[in-house]
């Protein structure tokens, strides 16, 4: 995915346990990954992600909080994607990924048109609101893109 974005860095949120290995820690920082403590609300990760967006860089988030390697179209979303998009007033570019997450196996990646959540800007949204907005506004497009 990062190859498709010319002239900008793609920052991904990655679970913090991946940063424990010296090599992976070095590598993940080189590819602009942001460590996230998934078991709690990681304020440091959220602030780092907000800084990335404020600097007009690109932030990659799997709305499910992980890569979906099941047969299900989508897993239950987390609220972080909608929280960040509405707080920072940035569009969400949906991406559908199809294929096996295995070394040297091809993946098909389809990019959709930006989704603007401006009707939610400035509103106090609960975690459940963010999940519901993701299911209603973003998931249908990701599912469509996965099927192309």
Automatic annotation (TrEMBL):
<keyword id="KW-0012">Acyltransferase</keyword>
<dbReference type="Pfam" id="PF01553">
    <property type="entry name" value="Acyltransferase"/>
</dbReference>
<dbReference type="InterPro" id="IPR002123">
    <property type="entry name" value="Plipid/glycerol_acylTrfase"/>
</dbReference>
<feature type="domain" description="Phospholipid/glycerol acyltransferase">
    <location>
        <begin position="1"/>
        <end position="100"/>
    </location>
</feature>
<protein>
    <submittedName>
        <fullName>Acyltransferase</fullName>
    </submittedName>
</protein>
<dbReference type="GO" id="GO:0003841">
    <property type="term" value="F:1-acylglycerol-3-phosphate O-acyltransferase activity"/>
</dbReference>
<dbReference type="GO" id="GO:0006654">
    <property type="term" value="P:phosphatidic acid biosynthetic process"/>
</dbReference>
<keyword id="KW-0808">Transferase</keyword>
